[in-house]
Every structure is written in C-alpha cells, then in structure tokens.
Design goal:
The chain is mostly helical. It is 76% helix and 0% strand.
C-alpha cells in the first residue's frame, strides 16, 4: 500500500478492489468515484482526487478506502494536520488490522514531515511531532506483526530526535550561562561597594600573576572542550539533514544549507581565534572545517558531517595536548629580584625600623660603660694600702 524509502514520501492509494468489499448496495457510483479519484491521484491532481473521494457516501462500502486515499492526497498537498486527523479516524474506525496498520504507518510519516516543516521556526514543536512519529511507527508494528520498514523508521526518527535535542541544548545553556554571568557580575559589584575593599598592594603582584596564568590555561582548555562538543553537535545536525533531505522541499533544503553553513562558519571563526594561542596545534581542525564548509555549500551533507567529526576530534586532541604541557616558570631575573628583596624584609621584621635599632645600641653601650666604671672602682679600692694604727 505504501511506497517506502527513508521516512519517505511514501503514500500509495488503495485500489477499489483491495478491500474486497461489495458495492452492489450503492450501485457502481462509489466504486467509480473511487477509481476516478485514484486516477487523478496518480496523475498528481490531488485537489480533484479529493473532490471525488468526498462524494462517496459515508455508508458506502468503499468509504474507508476513499477516506484513506483522501488522507494520502492531503499528505501530498502538505496539509499534514488534516491528513493526520483522517489517518487517526481510519485507525479508530477500521475493522481490518492491515488497513489500521497502514494508517498508523502513514501517520508516522505525516508527523515526521510536519516535524521537518516546523524545525526551522519552532524546534520544540518539531520535537513533539517527531515523538508522535516514533509512537505511530511503534503502534504500526503492533498491528503489522513485525513491519521491518517501520522498525527502521523508528531508529531514524530516534536519531533525529537525539540530534535535535543536542542542537537545542547549547542554545538553552548559552542563555542560562549569560543570565548567570550577569547575576554574578551584579553580585560582585554590590559586594565590592559594600566592603570598600582597597586594591592589593604590589607585594601580592607575583602571586596574582601566577594565578592569572593558571586561570588563562584553564579557560583555554575549557574553550577547546566546548568547541569540540559544538563541532560534534554540528556533525550530528548535518547527518540529520542528510537523512531528512528526501522529505524536504527545495526551499527547506536551501534553508538548512544556509543554516549549516552559517553555523560552521561561526565554529571556524572560534577555532581561528583559539589557534592564535595554540602554535599550530589546530591546523588539522581548521583544514577539516574548511572541507566541511565546502561540502555543505555543495549540498553533500553526509560528507560535511564526516569532516565535522574529524574536526571535533582534532580540537579535542589539541586540548588534551595542552593539558600535558608544563606551566611556565619565572625567568632568572624575577628569581634574583625576589632573592634580593627577601633579606631586607626579614631584617625589618626582626629588628624594627632604623631609629629603633640606634636607640637600642646606645642603651647597650651606656650599660657597658657603667659596668666598666663600677669594676674599675672596685679594683682600686682593693689595691689601696691600709694604715696601721699605732698605740705609742
């Protein structure tokens, strides 16, 4: 009943005889209308085909077949909401499991095509439609006794869901990060105003410079890791567009081509900025990114995805190599200057200021002088001869 290729434009109408229903009770009119409608459908005259299907009475034996084919025509006209509504009605009303399974299968494709329409302007609604598509294909398997094509479509839709989610997450994270940084900046300014803290003096300069160098290295490593993840997500999106290309109009394909190209250009610019600090470590990544952009411009999305994955690997490898490099050491002059300054600081701390040292020395000398005079006086007293008293 269904022409199946990749979540494809897959619809084929039901023939009037396919349901093996008798049209005797309603004459040949419903049977003829269904056949005329099918002929118009095959000729691509979908509006006229729909007019024929709608003329078939509700209680006619060919009514479900006409309703099914009308939904198929609406699908071809890209009236996906109306088509989905009719496929759901057939699933509920159908007494034949094969017809219900076909309706669910086509419903899965309808939700998928609607998701591709919504992806450009409303990714969240597109994600919801893809989830409905996956559910419809799974329900088709329940009635179709193991439909392999439905199973393959489930895997494709799941991959597209994962890719779309990964594409949406960085945008949400970036918005949250901007808000967080703004809040932190405001809190920092408020805290500084309240504390009235003065800037650190020059004695803390060397420690500050060391901390700043370490922070810069950490920032660079984080930037490389974020860039590698963003490049990998771009590769997943290129894969998704490649898989869905058969479902897209030329306008939609052109839109995604422009979007992928702009996204890759932004990633390339970020890589170029970081390359100035990496001394050639990002050369391979830059070459792969250039090849990816050329592939996107040529509409070769699968080839672009492969180059993007290689670029992501090269960026990640450059970040890992940067983590292994030793931290920069202070030059000899800085060490010498630091050595010269340390004894002066120690003298000041232990002995006090110059005026205090002079007063202490004077006090010691004065004490020594007094002690010396006392010892000399005692010695003179001992050496003086005693007078002998005479009794005559």
């Amino acid at each position: 009943m269904i022409r199946r290729r990749r979540t494809s434009r897959m619809i084929r109408v039901l023939a009037a005889a396919s349901l093996m229903l008798s049209a005797a009770a309603h004459g040949a009119s419903s049977h003829d209308l269904l056949r005329e409608g099918n002929t118009l459908y095959d000729a691509g005259r979908y509006d006229e085909a729909i007019e024929r299907y709608e003329q078939i009475e509700r209680d006619a034996p060919d009514r479900l077949a006409a309703l099914f084919n009308q939904a198929c025509a609406l699908y071809e006209l890209e009236h996906y909401d109306e088509a989905a509504s009719l496929f759901e009605e057939i699933d509920i009303a159908g007494a034949d499991d094969a017809l219900r399974a076909a309706a669910r299968f086509n419903l899965g494709h309808t939700h998928h095509s609607r998701a591709m329409q919504q992806m450009t302007d409303d990714p969240q609604r597109s994600l919801t439609s893809l989830e409905k598509s996956e559910r419809a294909f799974r329900e088709a398997i329940d009635l179709g006794r193991g439909d392999l094509e439905a199973g393959r479509n489930i895997e494709r839709v799941r991959q597209l869901i994962e890719t779309l989610r990964s594409h949406m997450q960085p945008q949400q994270d970036e918005s949250q990060q901007d808000q967080s940084q703004q809040d932190q900046s405001q809190q920092g300014e408020s805290s500084q105003e309240q504390s009235g803290q003065e800037p650190q003096d020059s004695t803390d300069g060397q420690a500050g410079e060391t901390d700043q160098t370490s922070a810069q290295q950490q920032d660079l490593a984080q930037a490389l890791d974020d860039l590698a993840q963003a490049q990998q997500q771009a590769a997943q999106l290129s894969d998704a567009v490649d898989q869905a290309q058969d479902q897209m109009t030329d306008e939609q394909t052109s839109h995604w081509q422009d979007q992928l190209s702009a996204q890759q250009e932004q990633l390339s610019n970020q890589t170029n900025d970081l390359a100035e600090q990496m001394d050639g470590a990002l050369d391979d990544a830059q070459q792969e990114q250039q090849a990816a952009r050329e592939a996107i411009e040529g509409g070769r999305f699968d080839e672009a995805a492969e180059h993007q994955r290689k670029a992501a690997d090269a960026i990640k490898q450059a970040g890992e190599q940067g983590d292994e490099q030793p931290q920069s050491q202070p030059d000899e002059q800085e060490v010498a200057d630091a050595g010269d300054e340390q004894p002066e600081q120690a003298d000041s701390d232990e002995l006090g200021e110059p005026d205090e040292r002079d007063a202490l020395a004077a006090e010691i000398l004065d004490k020594e002088r007094r002690d010396h005079e006392a010892r000399e006086s005692a010695r003179r007293d001992r050496s003086r001869a005693k007078q002998v008293e005479k009794d005559w």
